[in-house]
Specification:
Length: 233
């Protein structure tokens, strides 16, 4: 078995508790119009070309053993800081079997694991991966099905799937926080905020994240058009 990743970011400080290594996995069933990791959407290997002509390949395959070995290089620093490894993407649950295999190797070596997910994944995959995690960041991008379909895609039923997975997460005992990417004019009104808090559920920690204005440049490097109007600078 191999998995496909597009970045390993060491010493990450915002992807969970302590100092972390974040693994970005290729492939996502959604197409959020503001996605700031468009190189993570397609499962295919892609090339990003910068304005100066330099290019970088996005997408490398690893076996679970090879990836775990690479991640364990920083095991001591992660342990001392209360950190660990975070699986991100793309949507890490699109490669659920691979994430499970890597997480099991890491956990056997005493490394704590966290997941960043849109929740748009089959319930069996979601539960199998989440139950191996020490912490989960669960995205809530929109708070109604029509808006979700319009801005995130994913087909019929994707929003309902996210809500079912979130409901299971609430009762799972796995520590988690809900993250909302605040997109100007899409989901950032006071009424939107209130709706997100209600949807997350009583007592659930909700982090409202500012819009990432660096996204359009990555689309240009992939030869794609940024789906949202570019923000004024
Ligand atoms: S779920 Fe995440 S990776 Fe997938 S399209 Fe949306 S923002 Fe991008």
């Amino acid at each position: 078995m191999t998995g496909r990743i597009f970045e390993i970011r060491e010493f990450a400080l915002h992807d969970g508790p302590g100092v972390r290594t974040t693994v970005f996995l290729k492939g996502c069933p959604l197409r959020c119009a503001w996605c700031h990791n468009p190189e993570g959407q397609s499962p295919a290997v892609e090339t990003m070309r910068r304005k100066d002509g330099a290019s970088a390949v996005c997408g490398e395959d690893r076996t679970p053993d090879a990836l775990a070995k690479e991640l364990l290089v920083n095991a001591d620093i992660m342990e001392q800081s209360g950190g660990g490894v975070t699986f991100s993407g793309g949507e890490p649950l699109a490669q659920a079997g691979f994430v499970i295999a890597v997480a099991d190797l890491l956990r056997a070596a005493g490394v704590r694991c966290a997941l960043e997910t849109s929740g748009a994944a089959p319930e069996d995959d979601y539960r199998a991966v989440v139950s191996r995690m020490d912490f989960v960041y669960q995205d809530l991008k929109l708070h109604d099905a029509d808006a979700f379909r319009k801005w995130c895609g994913g087909g019929e039923g994707a929003f309902g799937l996210v809500l079912r997975n979130l409901a299971w997460l609430r009762g799972s005992g796995v520590p988690f926080a809900v993250r909302v990417p605040c997109i100007p004019g899409v989901n950032d009104s006071p009424a939107d905020r209130e709706a997100f808090l209600v949807l997350a559920g009583p007592g659930v920690a909700v982090e409202f994240l500012p819009y990432n204005a660096a996204a359009p440049a990555k689309y240009r490097m992939l030869g794609r058009k940024f789906p949202l109007a570019e923000p004024e600078r």
